[in-house]
Amino acid sequence: MYAIADLAARQTLRPSRGLIPTPDGEQLYYEDMGDGPTLLFVHGWAMNTEFWERQTADLVRQGHRCVAYDQRGCGRSSPAAAGHDLDGLADDLATVIERLGLDRVTLVAHSMGACQVARYLSRYGAERVAGAILVAGTAPGLFPDPASRTEPLAAQVTMMMADRPAYVATMAEPFFAPEQVSPHVVAWGTGLVLRATLHAAIEHTRTNINADVRADMAAFTCPTLIIHGSADQSCPPERSAELAHAMIPGSELLVYEGASHALPLTRGEQLVADIARFVRR
Predict the structure, then answer these.
(1) Helix ranges (DSSP H) in 111-262
(2) The whole model's pTM is what?
(3) Residue range 225-229: average pLDDT?
(4) 232 given a catalytic annotation
């Protein structure tokens, strides 16, 4: 249970939400709450701002400003026929930072969002970034050999085109495993994914599988925290977090023993504590 904040503290919780126009005419839905050190949350494949609700609710009450937005084609952002590649998604991140006037911001990215942050830093630099937190991130890329990408991409696109709800339900198992969550959490999480357009889900899958940001990793010149589950079945740490840690000088790697890919949902309290500690460093 949250302690009841005093009036002065509650007055700082000024919910703000709206749509940010992009240069190519799309609209990105965002939420902006609280005051204090700024955190910008970047979700992964086909999710949306609600994926981070435990983290933003806690951190706002702890005295942080929390901003989250829906990737194009996801949640309440516009559908978008194009711009789903890493360059386009990095440009969207830059647009959010610029339009909201964010500075000294800590970027918190989950899964594919880690590759997006790498590309953003490579394209725009870290001048406005205080730090980066990669949560179960896929960077530097799960399929470094281009020849290994064709088969999984074709299979996943075929399954989505045939029966997307069934495909998402199948993907939920490795997303949460081996951790136990209620069927209500699973239903809620899969529901978030199904709010993305089919086109966006397919294009984000293409981006996720084709992502190779090895050349971008040198752009992590800001303090970086890498958090990963030891039992992540969707993104094994030896193919992602361990490589990222080796490629980012001075980075900190935290491994949650027995944890899955769904850290914001399964290790919410622990994740909030580690985010807050990193921001206070």
Answers:
(1) 113-124, 150-176, 183-194, 198-210, 241-247
(2) 0.94
(3) 98
(4) yes
